Structures are given as structure tokens and as C-alpha cells.
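Appendix C reproduces, verbatim, an entry submitted by the partner laboratory led by Prof. M.T., so that reviewers can inspect both the input and the predicted structure.
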Amino acid sequence: MSKKESKHIEQGAKVVMNGGVIAYPTEGVFGLGCLPDNYEAVNRILNIKKRDIKNGLIVIVSSLHQLKGWVNLTSSHVNRIKNESEVVTWIVKKTNQVPIWVSGEHDSIAIRLTKHPIAAALCDISGSSLISTSANMSGEQPPSDQNSLQEQFCDIVDYIVAGECGMKNGSSMIKCIDTQEIIRPR
């Protein structure tokens, strides 16, 4: 990772730790993120996207320990998540500690062990999981490059973390951890 990327990551982590909203690269698309336990920041993201709170949001982690007791994973679940070669967001039964603004009206939560170095570093430095939802208005395509992201979001978010999305095009696959059912293909 370059010095420039490291500075952007450190600044992005500082912004989210202070209650802000950032845009940042992920495995497939640029994302909007904040600390998931910060209602005001999550609500800002929902308003930016014009997304209903009942739908829930994805949470990314660089380590499964960052789920803060929000899920009870079996050793089989942990192995499945850690050994998955694809970019997968898992639907996992939640505990009662998960805020409604994260899970929506669901009895589960969407989690992803991120494989993107910038997204993972943001989680590491902030010491937390992060909300990760595509940087777009509901129903519209997310920006495809850094310039488009900057044009659309520079006045809307508190900070844009520079970097490129991973090699994958589009949003992650979504699977149910217990049944392996594919809810959203790649």
C-alpha cells in the first residue's frame, strides 16, 4: 500500500470514528460507510441513498471479532466464511444487540469479511465493523470510477477515500450461511 493510500485510509478512519460518513472502494463497487452503531451517521447514509430503514444494510469486517457479539457463529460458519474464495456477503442470524437501523425488519444481518485491502484497513484502523452499502441512490448504478465518485459525492459525504475497487465488477454475491442459498448472484 502506498503512503498516499495509507494517509487516505487514516483520514477516512478518523472521519468515521468521529461520526462521519465516507465513500471508499470495496471489492466490486464504491461504498458508503460509517460506524454501524452510530444512528445519526447510518441515518445520513439512508437519506443519501433514499433507502428505507426496513431493508437493512451490509456490515463489513476485517476480522470476525469486529461483529461485537452481533452474531453467534458456529465453527462451521467461521470456516465457511474464512475459506470462501468468492466475494460473498453472508446472511446470518442476528443477536438482539444489532440495532434496527442496521438489520432493518429482518431477524438476520448481512456481513462480509472484506478482501479489499483499503476496506479492511479502514476496519482495522477504526477498530470496528463498517456499514458498506453501494455509493448510489437506490435503483441507480454506482459510480464506476474515482472521478465519477468524486463528482457525485464530494459535497454529500465527509470524506472520500482514494483507491480503486477490486477486480470484481458489481456487488457481492449474497448467500444464506445456514442453507447456502444464493439470494443475489454476482
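The chain has a mean pLDDT of 93. Additional entries are available on request from the coordinating office.
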